[in-house]
Amino acid sequence: MTDHIDTNGRVLVGYDGTSAAHHAVLWAAEEAVHRQQPLVVLMAHDILPTGTVRSGAAAAASVAVPTIQEADRARLDALEVELGGSCLDLDMSTEYVVGPAAPHLLARTAEPGLVVLGGRSRGLLGTSILGGVADAVVTGARGPVAIVPECDAAGDTVVVGIDDDGASAAALRYAYAEAQATGTSLELLHCVDLHPEVPTTNALAVAPPAGQDVVGVAREDLHGVVATVRRWGDVEVTGRVELAPSHRALVAASGVARLVVVGTRGRGNLAGLVLGSTSRQLVRSARGPVVVVPPVEE
Q1: CA–CA distance, 39 with 104 (Å, rounded to integer)
Q2: Residue 4: alpha-carbon gap to chain centroid
Q3: Same-domain status, 134 and 168
Q4: Which one of 2, 152, 195, 285 has the minimum C-beta count within 10 Å?
Q5: Which segments constitute the UspA domain (predicted)?
């Protein structure tokens, strides 16, 4: 197995001061240790977003900016002290930028490593900030992005969704390297939806052709993939065919796995990733950490 986690990369986590983001930072710190990579905590604060400063209020707002920045940096300092006092052998740094978070985080997905974001949460001003950021970053990412909801991973298995058309190839390589780095097992999950409610282009859920033993074919194909992956190294690899819509099966798996990994379908006309219904619903409904892996760019 030549695909492994590049120790020259880094784990970068977005932080906005919320409890959800704090939980994501703690997860990212452990991930950085497993990957033997440094941790970078990035805080981006759009202090004066366009259209929010009314006429006559600009002077007062400009006076408040240094105070806001000072409070932000104090949060980062406290976070660094907290993680520095933990038992983790962690190489950590922080970055602070003024401006919207999504463009900064999106640009960093092109660098080697992993970008980590918390799940949907209420921001410091009571608005749903991080959810929108996560949607934008996952959709346009050029590298793996982890979405970490505010709950603990329940198991010790890495689960990866497997499809028929090669879109999951990069996700499979990533999932194997993750299982190898964390000393956990790997489960390949392939879904067969025998009764699709609506027509779908989602290759993770196979619609059954008339007169064909789709379940038998799926199990045979998956058996071959499992046999191939087992030859990559010493990771314990199993496979499972689930008779259910793929998004439901993967969301359920996220509640009992250490991590769920899914692939994307390449870039659309607007240079955004084609997530499909499975990846999109999984990211928004996951009960545990999820990593979305785009295809390798040539």
Answers
A1: 16
A2: 18
A3: no
A4: 2
A5: 9-149, 157-294
Query: What's the pLDDT band for 215 if we cut at 50, 70, 90?
Result: confident
Provide the pairing of β-strand 145-148 with 237-242.
unpaired
Q: Are residues 108 and 166 in the same domain?
A: no
The encoded tokens of residue 76 equal: 């980062």
- Residue 204: per-residue pLDDT: 54
Neighbours of 156 (CB within 10 A): 14
Contacts of 222 (CB under 8 A, 6+ apart): 162, 188, 190, 239, 240, 241
3-state secondary structure of 24: helix
Look at residue 139 and give its three-state secondary structure: helix
Q: In whole angstroms, how large is the CA radius of gyration of the chain?
A: 20
Question: Which residues are CB-neighbours of 72 under 8 A, at least 6 positions away?
Answer: 17, 43, 45, 96
Residue 205 lies in a domain: yes
Q: How far is CA 68 from CA 53, 99, 124, 152, in A?
A: 15, 13, 12, 31
